[in-house]
Specification:
The structure holds two protein chains of two kinds. By secondary structure, chain A is an alpha+beta fold. Helix content of chain A is about 35%, strand content about 20%. In chain A, the strands form six sheets. In chain A, strands 2, 11, 12, 13, 14, 15, 16, 19 and 20 form a nine-stranded mixed β-sheet that branches. In chain A, strands 6-7-9-8 form a four-stranded antiparallel β-sheet, with helices on one face. In chain A, β4 and β5 form a beta hairpin. The longest helix of chain A is centred in the N-terminal third of the chain and has 24 residues. In chain A, about 55% of the residues are buried. Chain B is an alpha+beta fold. In chain B, about 55% of the residues lie in helices and about 15% in strands. Chain B has eleven helices and twelve strands. In chain B, a hairpin with a 4-residue loop joins β4 and β5. The longest helix of chain B has about 80 residues. Chain B is rod-shaped and about 200 Å long. The two termini of chain B are about 55 Å apart. Classes of the chains: A alpha+beta, B alpha+beta. Chains A and B meet through α3, α14 and α20 of A and α2 of B.
Chain lengths: ~600, ~500
């Protein structure tokens, strides 16, 4: 499988030098190194995972190689400079203000229309590289504050709009955009930018001043092309404000807003003045086709070029049999984790929680969906997608895998005084995957006499209920951009549902790792930061307050003539990413 | 042995000795410095590793995790990751074993879990040894060890000696070859320098040789201001002076030669003129003198009666003086003829010649003239030989003052020449006159007693010398005289004389 692993091999010497870089306090190099290590491990993981799948996957991998790689490298092939049509699994467009982008369609849209100061390398998240910044920022400490200086690219043009002409991006726009991101009235992710000040020190120079220093591991992702990191046009926002921005967004990306037909499609045109060069595509259309069968039919009829896949068992394998079609899966994956509420008896006894963990079998959970989309998760922070997680090997070494062991589970139940088990209520979403996962949970716990009574609610209702009336067990699928976000939002006491200072998703009512999480957040030495995150997760796993089950990747089917123009391993935008290099190759 | 080789063989071994001594010393101290450096190096790396483990235990304490087995294990893992990343050169590393002798941490994952409690080095470390040298897989290794009590880990920083001394060991052949090359280079340089040092000497020697062979134009050029250069300058000055002196001498010699030639020519010319003058004068004077003699004789005869006794005596005196004058002129003529008139030699038996001379001389009865022994036969002009013997015999007879006079003529064979002698027992010649008697017109007795021209012995001397011989007298006053003269035996001897 040369496609996946080989390009991401990290030289042993780099690994050996890892901590030497720490001693040299060269944070930038180190974070890049960690990211590379992580990307490498992910590539290796993907390669290993592929060993267990069907031969057809191997075949598709070859096709991927031919289309995604071969085509992208062979620039002599004729190119159709047409419009790429992407069929999404949603019924309508979400918010087009990137700072409120939450739904996958909004993230897809923002990814093509906006830029960040930094960006995740297309298809290669979480590897980060400069975007609007001329190069990777560096920091200095002054009066106890951390000051990051960002030098902007010159000649970056905003899209024209009905109320604003195209103009060059300056530090003024960046400062305005970042301040907007830091304001909870204008950004859903404002909390990420708390304690930060922004100032322009020149037409193309911006300084970000942090009250509490951050390591590059945490700092860089906040200013990527994700969430609040998107840079918006000051003039456009001031003219149209947020509502106007939703009507006609103005960014600097390779594609610009052209037309929105609600409930049907959103049309983007090529941004001819894009700073990396005009896109090879004339434009992109996002088609909102929630119904899988219809989406599939349009795709097969040739009315769509790329579609979001279904996780239904067998769907991907069947689609891959279609001539001229390639199915690819990629990160980032949402992590399914089972959270045990330590405040509810008898789960307040660690022996019960461990007994439940030993009763679980990850394989059965994964079997609920396509094997092409899932992978094992072993730590609360998914090690396959970001720095800070614990790898399977580490978890095994630490004896925290909780491999299925029913005898041990029963012994623990007996020791805890529940040899005959107990019963508990859980709330599931109507979504297929949730229902199936809860069902597997119920079935597995029943083996140690735990009666799991499932209540099915709408997806939104499920979210509301688990936050209002915490149950004994919650299964939650989530993607968070970094380790701190995972740990803070799921395990910091401030995030305890209902009673926490900032109630969020701490369903387990856990309080033991607050200091580790806080210190890690403020640790600017990436190696020490990883140690602290690791120790926090060891504690979580030792106390068995969370059982990482699996992660589910994204997937898309494309016509073979579509060339994304980059390798595809993982994207934060939750789709394969269409860039200025994406193209459609003429069919002979 | 030439001085070049003397200098070279003296200096080169010394230079090479010190060269190799300095190379060896450098190598030794380099290796020692490397050992010290390696010890410090390993201790630094060990301290670094211990700092990591300490930091991890502090982390556990700080967060209250010291009682959580998995957290402790995680801390060990993190420490292990950091420690195994510590670089100890290219081949060295840091590892840890439990106090029970099980490898707990090692860059080579395959080593983790291995029981090393039986290894000698572990026993040393276990007993508290902090510095050790041990034999590892194919290498002798240096190590520094320390116990980390909280985890009961013995942490070791180790590196193979081949790496520690790698530089020195790698340097060894290079140093050796460098020393060889340096030796060769130094030898060449020394040879060059020695040659350069001795070159002036060789130049001086060659110059001296050439000057010794007469080439005074030789100049020795030695650039610089050293002693050799100064010596060459002095040498050149000396040669120049020699050349000037010789040139002056040659010029003087040439001038002298010229002068001698000029004087010889002048003398020859004067001699010739003198001879011709003497001949001419003698010859030309002889005629008027004869006329005077004849007229005087006629006057004395014709006017004998007219003269009184005193007149007659006066006339007789005139005739005697004329006769003496004639004798003198005849002597001068004879003298001048010698060498002027070409002579011819013939075989001449001197016994006969001298015998006839004795007979013709008719010596008085009281004087006996005899030939003692045999006289040789010679190849000479008979007239000249007759003149020689006649003058000597006549003188002996004439001046004999003894009542029994004895004149003896003899000859001795002296290998290359004949030595003739004519001796008498007459009045003898005082020693002070031995040379004077051979001068022309010199007589010891008054002419009035013994009429003599004073030319005879001068004539004899000239003839003898003309024949290449010599003449001298052995005599004392009153004891007789012996005249000796020699004649070369071979004709060409005198002919060439």
């Amino acid at each position: 499988m040369p496609l996946k692993a080989q390009p991401f091999k990290v030289k042993p010497s780099l690994k050996r030098n890892h901590f030497q870089h720490v001693r040299m306090a060269d944070m930038k190099q180190l974070i890049c190194l960690i990211l590379w290590l992580w990307v490498s491990s992910m590539a290796v993981h993907s390669a290993l995972a592929s060993e267990s799948v069907s031969a057809s996957y191997d075949q598709s991998a070859v096709l991927i190689e031919n289309a995604a790689e071969g085509a992208s490298e062979d620039n002599t092939l004729p190119v159709e400079s047409g419009v790429l049509r992407f069929g999404m699994h949603v019924s309508e467009m979400g918010k087009m203000d990137p700072h409120f982008a939450a739904g996958s369609q909004s993230r897809v849209f923002a990814d093509m229309v906006y830029n960040g100061l930094l960006r995740y390398q297309p298809g290669m998240a979480p590897a980060i590289e400069p975007d609007l910044a001329a190069h990777m920022p560096e920091f200095e400490m002054a009066a106890g504050k951390q000051i990051w200086t960002i030098h902007l690219r010159k000649g970056v043009m905003f899209h024209p709009s009905p109320q604003t002409e195209a103009y060059e991006l300056t530090a003024e726009d960046v400062v305005f955009s970042l301040r907007k991101s830091a304001d909870k009235r204008s950004c859903a992710y404002a909390g990420e930018y708390a304690g930060m000040a922004f100032q322009a020190t020149g037409p193309y120079t911006v300084q970000i001043i942090l009250e509490q220093p951050l390591s590059p591991t945490l700092f860089f992702p906040k200013f990527t092309n994700y969430a609040g990191g998107f840079i918006v046009s000051k003039k456009a926002v001031q003219k149209m404000w947020s509502q106007g921005l939703n009507q006609h967004p103005v960014g600097t990306g390779p594609f610009m807003f052209k037309e929105h037909i609600p409930g049907k499609k959103l049309v983007l045109a090529s941004h001819t003045a894009y700073f990396r060069g005009r896109s090879l595509l004339e434009g992109v259309e996002l088609h909102f086709v929630q119904d899988l069968e219809r989406r599939e039919a349009l795709f097969l009829k040739g009315e769509l070029d790329v579609i979001a896949v279904s996780g239904q068992k067998g769907w991907i394998e069947r689609m891959e049999q279609t001539p001229g079609v390639v199915v690819e899966t990629h990160g980032v994956g949402e992590v399914f984790t089972i959270y045990f509420n330590t405040q509810i008896a008898p789960l307040n006894d660690v022996r019960i929680r461990r007994a439940m963990a030993y009763a679980l079998d990850r394989g059965e959970f994964k079997n609920t969906t396509s094997m092409r989309l899932v992978g094992d998760a072993y730590s609360p922070v998914p090690a396959d997608f970001m720095p800070g997680g614990l790898t399977k090997k580490e978890i095994e070494t630490l004896g925290l895998t909780y491999t299925k062991d029913l005898d041990r589970a029963r012994r623990l139940m007996e020791e805890a005084g529940f040899p005959n088990g107990f019963s508990m209520k859980v709330v599931s979403s109507k979504k297929r995957i949730y229902r199936q996962v809860y069902e597997v949970l119920r079935r597995q716990l029943s083996r140690i006499n735990i009666d799991c009574r499932i209540t099915i609610e709408s997806h939104a209702n499920m979210h509301r209920l688990i936050r209002k009336r915490p149950g004994a067990v919650v299964i939650y699928a989530a993607w968070r951009p970094n380790a701190d976000a995972y740990l803070t939002r799921f395990f910091h006491s401030d995030s305890i549902v209902v009673t926490g200072k900032k109630p969020d998703t701490n369903f387990v009512h856990y309080k033991k790792v607050d200091k580790l999480i806080e210190d890690a957040r403020l640790e600017i030495n990436p190696a020490k930061q990883l140690n602290l995150w690791g120790q926090a997760q060891v504690m979580i796993m030792s106390d068995m307050v969370a059982y990482p089950v699996m992660y589910t990747n994204q997937g898309c089917a494309r016509k073979m003539y579509v060339d994304y123009g980059h390798r595809l391993l993982s994207t934060m935008a939750l789709y394969p990413q269409f860039t200025e290099k994406t193209r459609m190759i003429h069919q002979p | 042995m030439k001085i070049y080789w003397k200098i070279l063989l003296t200096v080169l071994p010394l230079v090479l000795f010190f060269l190799f001594l300095s190379v060896g010393t450098t190598y030794y101290f380099s290796k020692k410095a490397l050992t010290d450096l390696a010890e410090t190096w390993l201790e630094t790396r060990l301290a670094e590793a211990l700092k990591i483990t300490e930091a991890q235990t502090q982390l556990l304490q700080h967060y209250g995790l010291e009682s959580v087995p998995a957290s402790i294990e995680k801390a060990k893992m993190d420490a292990g990751t950091a420690i195994t990343a510590i670089e100890v050169g290219e081949l060295g590393f840091v590892f840890a074993v439990s106090t029970k002798g099980v490898v707990t941490l090692h860059p080579d994952v395959g080593m983790v879990g291995r029981d090393v409690s039986g290894e000698a080095w572990f026993k040393e470390v276990f007993q508290g040894e902090k510095k050790l040298v041990y034999w590892g897989p194919g290498n002798t290794n240096m190590a520094r060890a320390a116990l980390f009590e909280p985890w009961e880990w013995i942490v070791l920083a180790t590196s193979p000696e081949k790496e520690i001394y790698g530089v020195a060991n790698k340097m060894k052949p290079y140093i050796f070859y460098l020393a060889i090359l340096a030796s060769i280079a130094m030898s060449i340089v020394l040879m060059f320098m020695t040659r350069r040092l001795t070159a002036p000497l060789i130049s001086l020697m060659a110059g001296a040789d050439r000057i010794g062979k007469g080439d005074l134009q030789t100049r020795i050029s030695i650039p610089g201001r050293d002693e050799f250069s100064r010596l060459a300058d002095v040498f050149n000055q000396m040669a120049a002076q020699l050349q000037n002196t010789l040139t002056t001498l040659q010029q003087s010699h040439q001038e002298l030669e010229l002068r001698v030639q000029e004087r010889t020519a002048q003398l020859k010319s004067i001699n010739k003129e003198l001879k011709e003058f003497a001949y001419v004068v003698s010859h030309d004077l002889k005629a008027p003198l004869r006329a005077i003699s004849q007229l005087t004789h006629w006057i004395s005869m014709d006017y004998a009666a007219a003269f009184d006794r005193e007149g007659r005596e006066m006339m007789d005196l005139v005739l005697k003086r004329v006769k003496r004058m004639d004798g003198l002129i005849e002597g001068v003529l004879s003298y001048s003829r010698i060498g002027r008139i070409k002579e011819h030699g013939e075989t001449l038996d001197l016994n006969m010649l001298v015998g006839e001379l004795i007979e013709n001389a008719m010596p008085p009865p009281h004087i006996q003239v005899v030939i003692e022994g045999e006289l040789p036969v010679v190849q000479r002009d008979p007239i000249r030989m007759e003149q020689v013997f006649q003058n000597l015999i006549d003188n002996a007879v004439t001046y004999m003052d003894k009542p029994q006079g004895a004149v003896k003529i003899g000859c001795g064979d002296e290998e290359t020449h004949w030595k003739f002698s004519v001796s008498d027992n007459g009045p003898g010649v005082d020693k002070q006159y031995h040379d004077k008697i051979f001068q022309i017109f010199q007589t010891l007795a008054p002419r009035d007693e013994h009429e003599s021209s004073g030319v005879g012995l001068t004539l004899v001397k000239k003839i003898v010398e003309q024949y290449g011989g010599s003449i001298w007298v052995a005599s004392e006053s009153g004891k007789g005289s012996t005249f000796y003269f020699t004649l070369p035996k071979r004709e060409h001897d005198y002919a060439t004389a």
